[in-house]
Amino acid sequence: MDKLKVIFMGTPEFAVPSLAALADKTEIICVVTQPDRPKGRGHKLQPTPVKVFAEENNLRVIQPLKVKAPEVVAQLAELKPDLIVVVAFGQILSQAILDIPRLGCINVHASLLPKYRGAAPIEWAMINGEQITGITTMQMNAGLDTGDILLKSEVKIPDDMILPELRERLMTVGADLLLTTLYKLQHGELQPIKQDDSLSSYAPLLKKDTGLIDWNKSAREIHNLVRGLYGGARAGKLKIWRTRLVDENLSPAEIKIIGQKFFVGTGEGSLEILEIQAPNSKKLNAADFLRGNKVGDDFWMNE
């Protein structure tokens, strides 16, 4: 069976394993990724992880500011792909692009659709305390993650798992499920299933205030926020990186230090702070942080 001619669209590290899997099994005629962006203190332009992989493997790369632009659509159409595969690309495709490949466009989405449609499904699944998430491959349409479901693969979320660990697991599962999807596609074994919109939920882009900790919430809610943002949860100017649920009788925001351990109360239950970061400092475990910082009753307000 001839190799499929594929255009791949993706941007972050999450998309790289899927691109690598396709590079072994298909003919990638073009990789489409976001433009280089300034990063770091020097604001130097940095290529996307997908671009880095593509260039290392001698794959053609284009980086349109707007993939919907007529000249970009025309450029993609000229390539006559069998299929377009999209993994965390970061731009919405127009109907004109969806109509280009003879086999349509397939998306690898990091949730069990129709739950968690949108830009941040991994983070919101963890923040909301889900115990199971997964990958869905989907036949794309003009809606936001509303196309017909092709295949699903479940992934468990243990209570102590943090965002990078879940993301890495889903990256691998996504690449594997994509290859299974393409195999079944070529052998006529796929049976697309329409999504039940009544069961859908939305995972919007994260905002700065998403990570603000409210100590009146339950320990479980705050713990899920901390692990689901991993460095994005904040109490005042402090970043909280890791926590553990514990059985301490404390009021909301009340701090208790026992030896080198750092406990804080919430609206329901308590947490042990395992990793914390002060402004203009690096991330530290609790013991190291306590050695260099005074922690009193007004700690959160001062910070």
Explain how this protein is built:
With 303 residues, the protein is of the alpha/beta class. It has helices at 16-25, 49-56, 70-78, 95-98, 121-127, 163-186, 219-229, 286-292, 299-302; strands spanning 5-10, 27-32, 37-39, 44-46, 61-62, 83-87, 105-109, 132-139, 148-156, 233-235, 238-246, 255-258, 261-265, 270-277, 284-285. It folds into 2 domains: 5-199, Rossmann fold; 208-302, Methionyl-tRNA Fmet Formyltransferase, Chain A, domain 2. Helices cover 28% and strands 26% of the residues. It has a 7-stranded mixed sheet. Helix 1 runs parallel beside helix 6 (163-186) and helix 5 packs antiparallel against helix 7 (219-229).
List keywords for this structure.
303 residues, alpha/beta, Rossmann fold, Methionyl-tRNA Fmet Formyltransferase, Chain A, domain 2, 2 domains, seven-stranded mixed β-sheet, 9 helices
